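dumping the sequnces here before i forget
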Amino acid sequence: DQQVKQNSPSLSVQEGRISILNCDYTNSMFDYFLWYKKYPAEGPTFLISISSIKDKNEDGRFTVFLNKSAKHLSLHIVPSQPGDSAVYFCAASAIQGAQKLVFGQGTRLTINP
Amino acid sequence: NAGVTQTPKFRILKIGQSMTLQCTQDMNHNYMYWYRQDPGMGLKLIYYSVGAGITDKGEVPNGYNVSRSTTEDFPLRLELAAPPQTSVYFCASSYSTLGGVYNEQFFGPGTRLTVL
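..and the predicted 3d for all of it:
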């Protein structure tokens, strides 16, 4: 049973445009959500997070939106840059339970010049 | 700070062999985690620790063991390696308080393990 799903395995975006990555979850106990970026042969790097008491969090070019009623979150990157090309993982955790992360399958983002 | 370091980077094992994957963090984090990532999949939690001397199972613990004798180190032991354990293994750490403040997990570079 996949509790966190990223239904798009890949996404291709023109440089300078907006990239939107989506993530759905099923477990109502999740109250903290994170996005990680991963380059080949490296570990995941933290990008941005949001807790369930908010519906939006912004950090520079990156914004995460949370829709709790739909159990859906999205990551917006604007403007997209070539260095943003990577695999992006959505992850979720519940404060009860040592903040164990449950990951989605990842979306490979390619930014075209 | 080196952050989270893992050794070795690569390893090939024969079926039935054993090995220990090393993980060390220098950020004084109390929580540590082991994940595995199979091709095309997300990371799955193997074991975690909320402090020295305290460990617990994650989603996929079978075939693995851990120990946490110090704050810094969290080794993962594979006994009787089998082909399904072929994967990339990531160690992570984070800092958490009793008040339940959320903090992100920091990941090591990974160990790529192949069991033949």
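Chain A has a mean pLDDT of 94.
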